[in-house]
Amino acid sequence: MATFYNSLTSATDDPLLPFLWSVKNALEGSGGSSQNLLNLLGDCIISFKDSEQYRNDVRFLKIWILYMGVSSDFGSVFMEMLNCNVCTKNASLYVWSACFFELKGRLHDALTIYHLGISRNAEPIEWLKKAQALCHQRISETWKAAERQKIDYKGSTELGNIGINPWDSSILEDLMKKINPTIKKFYGYHLSTKSYTGKVALSTLKNASRNKVIEIGGRKYHIKGCAGQGGFAQVYKAFVNSDPNDVVALKIQKPAFPWEFYMYRQLDMRITGRERSSYGLAQRIHLYADCSILICDYLAHGTLQDVINTYAVQGKPMEEVLCIYYTIEMLHMVETLHGVGLIHGDFKPDNLLIRYARDDLTEEGFLDRSGPSCDQTGEEGLFWISFQMT
């Protein structure tokens, strides 16, 4: 009698529990057909997807993952899971979902899911980053295996038109060796064969960066806070020599990543005039044995992703005219890049900063893209950063 009473009490306090028992029985083969399992999981999701009680409950996340596994339209299930904000700060959401998409052969989607989780700082972040790295490794091995099969089939050791695996570390190393003589000649390139040995360890900036001062290349940078964080780099807002009128962004990356600086200089050479102001501006880079510090112009208005999140928090859609405006901006920027032979490898709202004009933007200024200028950036619109391009 006591056991029965306890079961009733548990079901009242935890309405999800009876569904969990039913799903367990179905998985063990005592609950009927796979269609019954699909219906059971669907009913569970409909019942609790709007419940705050289970928003961050890993058990409910597992229900979603199971439902995604038996659904014919698993992509839509994943998007609905994101829209319902199920465990969005939990790395399990992204690791489990990415593994499922990878299993289905959706490799690009899998990598996108990892990027999404890292951009949201899902915890534990180190597990998420490790899972992403292993995914990259598996994709690289798949490419290599495919290349070997093609070579064996042709009976030749020539790669010919097989293609290039962009995740292969050896490919990246070869590219860096080829551009090394060129990049050394660029203005702002500073190379040291030693590790960074400043008085303030860069690793300490992650936890408490504000008001620390680091010295780089004879200049002192007064850190004012973390402006952004990605999978392999952190970006900090800083005053140069404590001058509040001279504000920069410091992108600290481990291991060292000179490729982005090289691409910025390619932008300088290939894109001229007003169009150049729509892309990131790198002042200099300091390369060390253990890291790189890229010094760029700083913009204070956040990213396009921040704008999207603001609307999402308010529970309303972005105005149609604003959507059209940002879409036109993005298409124009992509078209410009492709026109000069460059492809951006990480196109997403997180990498698009917002630019605001000081004065009102006139219709004429919008049409001919010559609106009022703002600090550092030129006209109002979007500003592209994080150039992982080829």
Automatic annotation (TrEMBL):
Principal subcellular localisation of the protein: nucleus
Record protein name field: Mitotic checkpoint serine/threonine-protein kinase BUB1-like
Keyword Secreted: no
Listed GO CC annotations: kinetochore; protein-containing complex
Record-annotated Protein kinase domain positions: 221-390
Cited Pfam families: Mad3_BUB1_I, Pkinase
Superkingdom: Eukaryota
GO BP terms, alphabetized: meiotic sister chromatid cohesion, centromeric; mitotic spindle assembly checkpoint signaling
SMART domains in the record: Mad3_BUB1_I (SM00777), S_TKc (SM00220)
SUPFAM superfamilies reported for this sequence: Protein kinase-like (PK-like)
Domain BUB1 N-terminal: 4-159
Gene3D superfamilies attached to this UniProt entry: 1.25.40.430, Transferase(Phosphotransferase) domain 1
Molecular function as annotated in GO: ATP binding; protein kinase activity
Keyword terms of this UniProt record: Centromere, Chromosome, Kinetochore
Localization in the cell: Chromosome, Centromere, Kinetochore
Keyword Phosphoprotein: no
